[in-house]
Amino acid sequence: MPNYRRARINDEFLRVVSDAIRTVKDPRVASEFITVTQCEVTGDLKYAKIYFSVLGADTEKIKDILRGLKSASGVIRHEVAVNLNLRITPELQFIYDNAMERGAAIFELLKKTHTESSPEPDGGKDDE
User: Could you tell me how far CA 108 lies from the centroid of its own chain?
Assistant: First the structure.
């Protein structure tokens, strides 16, 4: 399958899955603000990896959300089948993406080193 077609399928998949997650009634999923960050559909369209993130959730809460998404995967897959005209509807696999937390941690470290290594202001005086 050409790469541009797979990229278009991935983008549409991301849009449809993120809309479908908002309609899930499972309290483990409905009570959280889940962001779908990326979708990767295999070339044969049999499997799809869906990467998601949740801000401010601890590991126990993330495991609970994963269980809720896994139990709701049939409903989400049905929404994908209805909205995307694909011959095969991929089997869904949900993966937690902690890139947002890693990015925030790196930003804080960079900010901390920048403030520690910045020179003292000299009040705008020149030595000349």
Answer: 21
Per CATH, the number for 3-117 is 3.30.300.20
What residue segments make up the domains of the chain, in order of their start?
3-117
Find out whether 17 and 76 touch, Cβ atoms under 8 Å. yes
Query: Between the CA of residue 81 and those of 75, 76, 92, 125, what are the distances in Å?
Result: 10, 9, 12, 69
Sequence-distant (≥ 6) Cβ neighbours of residue 67 within 8 angstroms: 28
pLDDT in tens, 84-114: 888 889 999 999 988 777 888 888 888 888 7
DSSP secondary structure code for residue 120 in this structure: P
Q: Distance (Å, rounded) from C-alpha 77 to C-alpha 42?
A: 15
